[in-house]
Amino acid sequence: MNKRLKSVSIVLLSLVVSTSLLLSGCGSAAPNTPQSTATKKDTIAIAIPSEPSTMDVQFADDGNMRAVTDNVIESLLTLDGKTMKVIPALATEVSRIDNTTWDIKLRPNVTFQNGNPFTADDVVYSIKRIIDPNFKSNIAGFFATFKDAQKIGDLEVHIITTGPDPSMPTRLTLLDILNQKEMLASPDKIKTAVSGTGPYKIASWMKGQRIVLERNDNYWGTKPAIKTVNYRFIEEDATRAAALRNGEIDFATNMLPEYVSTLPQIQTAEGLEFSLVRMNAVSGVMKDQKIRQAASYAINWDAISKSLYQGYASIAPGQVLKPSYFGFNKNLKAYPFDLAKAKQLLAEAGYKGETITFVGEQGRWLKDGEQEQAIAQMLRDAGFKVDVKMLAFSQWLGVLFPQDPTSTPPDMIFTFHSNDIYDADRTYSTYVLTTGSASSYPKTLDAQIIAARTELDTTKRQQEYEAISQTLYDNPAWLNGINIKDIDGMGKDVVYQPREDMRLKVSEMSFK
Amino acid sequence: MATYLLKTLLKALVVVLGVSLLVFVLTRSIGNPVNTMLPLGASMAERARLTHQLGLDKPLLAQLGDYVVGVAQGNFGESWWQQESALTVALRPLPFTIELSGIAVVISLVFAIPLGILSALKPRSLLDKVASTSSMLGICVPNFWLGLILILIFSNLLHWFPTSGTGGWQYWVLPSVTLAVLPLGRITQIVRTAMLEQLRELYIVTARSKGLPEFWVVTRHALKNAGVQIVTMSGWELGRMIAGYTIAIEAVFGLPGIGSLIVDAIGQQDFPLIQAITFVIAICIVFLNILIDLSYPLFNPRVKFK
Predict the structure, then answer these.
(1) In-domain check, residue A26
(2) Do A292 and A277 contact (CB within 8 A), yes or no?
(3) Is the whole-model pTM more than 0.90?
């Protein structure tokens, strides 16, 4: 045997030995994994990427928590999962009395899961708790316009706002109603086992292992088909996919496009987030409108969607709003990919190859780093000289939301923007209004944004936002990116249509 | 013995304090956690308010003072992210991590010791070459990849074990085997080297020449003396796992260990929790090292503690 062959055979043998060691380590008396063979299935196992940090819905901004609590706790109003129209939940009627007072009529004969009746006291308590600055709620910003809440009758509440607030109905879809009596009796219970009015109640939470929900048989609304919900926490995407293939779980959120072909069934919905590249329209090279337009023509979003996300992403329609959001301008279309036009605009602007700083981060969103590199390369192809600075998430945040408002913003910074209140105000108040936390746009639109934010006539308000979006299209504040679709993996027998608002509602699930 | 313990504990105190101080300074230099806690679109006023409420607008020395006073009273503060005592949150995954790491080290020892001895007895033999190549493979294979491959084979194809989660003994098999592969490789090599060294010693020649059966020569004499190195190495592996090396295994198998907790705490920039976890881990490592030291006389009675 020559030397080379000998070493090859040693490597091969070693492989065999190590595998057999592994096999023997695994033991022989292996049981079968629990297969669900019951004829009538009424228990669903759902895998979410990580364990919720708390059950205190008023405190945390935590998607994993919401995947559980959205089935347990309800808000005054809610959204229709398909149309995103606001519909009644714990409130039956919401009306405006004057510019700053809203009257809320509450649903009668509703009880919390522990038997306490639902009354105006619970609503007043919930509002006062979340707007209390000492409570340190991470989502208090959604209710920044709330000044006070007053009990009018057992089933009637007034909400007082600091000024006219046209987004009140949407805000009420985010306001979770807590059980006042329970909260006062045992204030710490909400961290682990809150009792709400929703279709499911928390049966147990074994930290690190699982959360179990049971159907609330006294629920005021339609009785859900599924009786028991078992949440598991599996961080690794490939493992969630493997567990789904094995039938260990019936439903898994956040699946990667790469795994789609291996899964029994998938359903998708457009997410709430758009990627965008904010440009510095105030100072530096990008101050020139033509250069920002050139950048808008330079990006081939279709290629990014297809090559990075296997087509599970849609291109922003000339604005980072979805058609279902308030203020959507249906006349806008995405900038076409036109390299010649981009080069021509750059030449007209007299761009001489000044370096453009492009700030990015990595690992917060699906393939964000890859998307940034692709965008930077496409800009280079159009003639830009791009210097990509990849920062750690916290550093990147410090650049996007500077502590010092007078600091100079980078020429370009990549982010994903999520519109939590489905309203154009959220986007424009943050990224365009000069007092916004992430603005690098001149004052020109400030007056219009402030007017629209307090306009109570919906038709007029809609027109105002359409005008703002048009201006931002012509004189861009950012490159409109893409919306990555959320992919839910499911067992063959699960029936569910993911909602437009991304909430996971077990009450809308059933088995075939 | 008493002086030794006193000295060691004093040293340990210095180590734990040093680690805590370092972590305190490092956490404060990775940016404002308020930005991670609040939704991306939060206003400047909201950010400023939360910064103030968390006491992060105080000078660094004042924050350090608060922290030291708290720790002296056994109070690490409340986890910002989980709204619970940071120490409680930090201690919660510890039993699980210790159990998983312990099982993995036992598995690797069970295979590494015989494999290492056999290789040392016949150096350069085929068995030796196979053993060292496999142990090199074990060291080189990334464990998250190995974990996924094992899931594919033993869960998806053979249906022997569940893919992930916790429960009966079958849930422990894939994660602990995956975790054991790297220490298995390393300990095999340590056993081999240590045994080779011992087998060359004169006392082995004596033992052999007085007609002691080879089995006893190897186990009672050579292995016992090699024990110090083997225990040190195993302890080191165990310490590494407890210090968060299990992270990839936890992520792949959906397990509630200390590794994912550290990463989450850092991701959330939850300073009190990061401080509590590093404190707990530092204590564990120090304690483990003392245990290892104390075990030396079992293998070598000449070891004296001063």
Answers:
(1) no
(2) no
(3) no
